[in-house]
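Worked example 2:
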Amino acid sequence: MTFETLLVSAPAPEVRLLTINRPKALNALAPAVVRELLQAVADAAGDAGVRALMITGAGDKAFVAGADIAAMSAMSALEGREFAVQGHALMRTIEMAPFPAIALVNGYALGGGCELALACDFIVASEKAVFGQPEVGLGIVPGFGGTQRLTRLVGKAMAIELCTTGRQVKADEALRIGLVNHVVAPDQLMAKGLELAGAIAQKAPVAVKLAKHLVQRGQDMDLANANAFEADVFGVAFATDDRVEGTRAFVEKRKPEFRGR
């Protein structure tokens, strides 16, 4: 499928890369971009050959500098809510995808861009990356899940500070507060993403899917129920051919050949 604002590629076997391609607009999330991203993520989720997803922005200035403010300025209250609903659908689709999603943040990740990165399973940031939720300066609030995912990632106090001051966070601070997993030189961003995606792709596909599912679902449960859920899913994993192959390969001291079943 061909998209107008999105580049879809496979930089390595079993890895899908989505590049938001609006560098002149700093890759802002206009409604059309949100729709195209949603379709592209859904397409990847429906492809059994995809084991990891990476999302980035074109150019060296921005991952996504925010939602398209020009488009938002003309929206009614109902249109604004529908835009938020579309954004939430995109973020939820990323979270529920059957493979880990990695945000490669190469510059500004503000507003909707920060929220897009937060919806990914983890973030690799360039040393030039800058994060923030500046919506209160526009008279609005984060609308694509920023208040909720940021709180779960960095804690209530830091989330309230960032969402009420609009303060921007550079890569080193983002790493310190747990917002990102890795910070690398700008010219190493893609290589680091591919290294991590490649490591994921080598593991048992069903087990990776189940592990992500456990973390995503379990974070909103109390500990006792989450642990019971984990035990159930652990049992499910034992029913897979990949479990038989993985344990047998370990005993036989050879590399396993996983088939995703």
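The chain has two domains: 6-201, 205-251. The chain has a mean pLDDT of 94.
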